[in-house]
Amino acid sequence: MLEAVELTKHYKQQKAVQGINFYLNQGEIVGLLGPNGAGKSTAIGMISSLIIPTKGEVRFNQVDVLKDPQVLREKLGVVPQELALYDDLTARENLEFFGQIQKIKKQDLKKKIDEVLIQIGLDDQEKKLVKHFSGGMKRRLNIGAALLHEPEILIMDEPTVGIDPQSRNYILETVKRLNQEKQMTILYTSHYMEEVEFLCDRIYIMDRGNIIASGTKEEIKNILSAEQTVKVKLEIQHQGFIDRIKQESVISRVDVREQWVTIVAPKEVPVFSQLFQFAEETGAVIHGIEIQTPTLEDVFLHLTGRALRN
Q1: Which end of the chain, N or C, is less surrounded by CB atoms within 10 Å?
Q2: Do 141 and 231 share a structural domain?
Q3: Do 74 and 98 have their domain in common?
Q4: What mean pLDDT, rounded, does the chain reach?
Q5: Is the same domain home to 256 and 190?
Q6: Smallest Cα–Cα separation from 89: which of 158, 161, 141?
Q7: Which of 79, 81, 82 is nearest to 98 (CA)?
């Protein structure tokens, strides 16, 4: 339905996006996961025809979007990371303004605004000035503005940044409903692993302008299928114990957070016996050991050597 081919954007010396390829099938939610600065927003700008790529193509139903952007724009809704609202207008007035920009007929606009206000859970706040809204309410109204013309594809750029957990959950459930009830195709960008795991059918992981992994959640996690992740809880953080683990060349990663030490090693390595041996050698006291199934966070650490939110 929507495809990017060798999409590239360079700004003088900065290589923001470096020849990425991806696609969206009709009716699926696809996650674009990566840290701040990974190039996600630039990629979205090129896909939605707002940024001209240095090279590459964007195709919508086999039509070249760069040559004929209107063919996509009529079917596309974009929820930007930065709020695009007028604080001195009410919720309804904001939607009326954006509906007029989208050239929705006056006789249809009131009905569509009523429907959207219910969808985003603001039908009881429609006469309230936006400047009095919470961050979460503004985010929901921002989504509503993109839904007025009933888009076939919805692109959402970090739609839950800086809001409370309750509003965040409401937005995630709204995204699910739009996909299931409206069969809307959604491209969802985030640097929150748990959001992408909850929502998405397929995932692209992006870092420093490149797509470094793609597939279903299970396919991406299988990147670590040959490794095991073990968490050790110590009585107190013990530097001698940690240093001893790091000396072992077969252990591929050691992550320390307070009293917890996370170790990643090949499955054939007898980690349990080694940990108790190291504790005895260094005088560390182990309070518990957990075996973890791989997460997307583990995959990102494995691929880049750093945490997603570093």
Answers
A1: C
A2: no
A3: yes
A4: 91
A5: no
A6: 141
A7: 79
Same domain, 163 and 269: no
List the domain range (segments joined by +) for residue 273: 226-293
Q: Which residues of 91-122 are buried (b: 16+ CB within 10 A; e: fewer)?
A: bbbbbbebbeebebeeeebeebbeebbebbbb
Q: Which helix (H) or strand (E) holds 204?
A: strand 202-207
165 belongs to a structural domain:
yes
Tokens linked to 152: 């076939």
Residues 129 and 270 in one domain: no
Taking the complete model, does pTM exceed 0.85, yes or no? no
CB 79 within 8 A of CB 28: no
Residue 307 lies in a domain: no
DSSP secondary structure code for residue 131 in this structure: G
> 165: which DSSP letter?
H
Q: By C-alpha distance, which of 88, 187, 84, 185 is closest to 141?
A: 84
Tell me: do 254 and 181 sit in the same domain: no
Per DSSP, the residues of 60-86 read ETTEETTT-THHHHTTEEEE-SS----
Backbone angles phi and psi of 61, in degrees to 5: 50, 45
The closest alpha carbon to 208, from 70, 69, 93, 43, belongs to 43
> Nearest Cα to 38, choosing from 50, 13, 59, 20?
20
Could you give the angle at the alpha carbon of 53 between the alpha carbons of 48 and 58, nearest 5°? 50
Tell me whether residue 133 is in a domain: yes
Q: What is the pLDDT of residue 22?
A: 93
Cα separations in angstroms, 128 against 50, 131, 136, 138, 194: 31, 9, 14, 11, 32
> 310 pLDDT exceeds 60?
no
CATH number at residue 237: 3.30.70.100
